[in-house]
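Sync notes, pocket subgroup
Present: LS, DG
LS reminded everyone that the earlier model was apo-only. Rerun requested with iron/sulfur cluster included. Inputs:
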Amino acid sequence: MHGFMGKILVVDLTGRKTTMLAKDAAYYRAHLGGAFLAARLFEEFMAGEDMQDPFGPGNPIVFATGPLAGVSVCGSTRVNVLSLSPETPGIFASQAGGEFGPDIKRAGFDALVVTGASETPVFLDIRNDRVIFEDAAALWGQDRLSAYNRLKAETTGNASIATIGPAGENRVRHANVMFEPDHYAGRGGLGAVMGAKNLKAIRIGGNRPVAFHDAETVKAINKAGAASFAASYKKNPASFLGVLKTYGTFGLLMLNQDVGNLPVNNFNQAQVDDDRFQADIDHETIGTTAVGRRNPCKGCYLGCKKNSATDAGHTALAEYESMALLGPNLGITDLTQAMEASEICNRLGMDTISTGALISYLMDGFAHGDLDEKELGFTIRFGQADAVCDLIRKIARREGKIGNLLADGIDTCCRELGPQTFRHRRFAKGMGLPAHLPRVKPGIGFGYLHGPNPGDHMKAEHDWIASSPDDLKGFNIDVTSDVFALDPAKVTIYRATQIYYAAMDSLSVCMFIYGPGNILSFDDIVRLVNAATGFDFTFDELMAVGERAIQLQRRLYTAFGGRDEDLLPYMETPIPGGPTKGNRISPEDFAAARAHYYKIWGWDTGGIPG
Ligand code: SF4
């Protein structure tokens, strides 16, 4: 077999047993890898009556890689992690960069399935076929960077390490998984699933060769992609990809501020009205004050990942989502303070997006008099950076009433703190909304409200594509839609690119490289997949993989009670100022969009697949 190792490693933590499953070429042609393979393996291994409980031993957690990983192909190193989510009802797939995906393959596997639960803290040490269950008592309670550094110091040869922090150990519902020191499977609370299994860390590596069917063609397409990107960067360094290359996603702060697409004060505004903030996020400024050396995923010629310029002790430079949600969204316009809040989340092991959305919900509640300081014994106001850092620590450690409430997620908060707080919720089925505003990008906002993967900004192309007939041609779509509209055409376009993204997630690749109109053409991608695997996919067949992947994930999502979110009341309110002033989503447009979406997917009127 080419591009695949042909084997899945299954580790049962309860019985401390391992199994190696062989899969044939037909299985891989049907699923490829990544999120689709992970969903299929989840379905095969979910077990027992406690399966409805994300913290039960019957809930498997799957780490899957893709057919292009393991040899130096730009953007191919991502790992997809999937499990029943503690944060949203249903399954959730999250992904991260780094070398964990390729190291799964170097160990001889396409995916790792972890089932059961250990009675005591454990870390898995996997080297080729050898799996050791190591005692992790000494690591338990350590923040992630400390745990990683300790394991790294003891590592011989190439290997990658996944760890959770105290938040995962404490089953904080938005705890995440860290890969190496700088990469995060941030969403869906999958770190808490590891915590419930008493699984502190996984170290994996090996020396199994990864073989491609036609390695020369793979190399040539990769090289041509690098050359074409270098030429376009030279021509226009200020383009979206140029900004990513020079400043990482940190540079998107300025782009989104300028167009009025930044969450400010709990998503109530879309732009910061502050000259100092505007000057601080200027690209030339951040080039010296914030953005440090390149720290890319291996083999990546774009290299969006950066170190911090100011603090070598920090994990990687904060991403745009973290800066936006823990900065302006909390009324914090000092970049250093937002970076600090992000770093604390990273060390303790919590998703920065949901953490930011939980704290801004509280702040908005206090600002509108819907929460009572005396009753709660606690208060927090927009702009209070020190209080934010304290609260993040409390959540990760489940300290006191407020720490425990937020650790249990938005639904518990709304239930305990009262229905008057509901209007401050910026969540889709438990998932905090990312920093691309639904009222500015209503197509992507519509996607946030629909499972599988609610609240995820990386599951379809953003709204710009809807008004670009040339880019839509590749999807055989001949309708267009206004960037700010939510109409049936926008939904048709959303679905087509959703399928495309799902196909790319089945390859486990980075969308900055493989996104439509970015670097590689559709033809390049098809040739790359076929050269790596020896399969004979057409573009339409590759899209059919994506379509089946969504249908399976949707079926699993709804089977565990996952349903779509209603339009949040704040989305109906016009944006009060800035370049996107007046933007809103009307309930009528939303209802028509949802009916159209269910129809074109062939789901029933409740959104359930047949
Ligand atoms: S663009 Fe960024 S996230 Fe994507 S592969 Fe390159 S460094 Fe990694």
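DG: The chain has three domains: 7-205, 240-425, 442-601.
LS: The pocket of iron/sulfur cluster is lined by residues 75, 97, 296-297, 300, 302-305, 510, 512-513 (CB under 6 Å).
Action: DG to write up.
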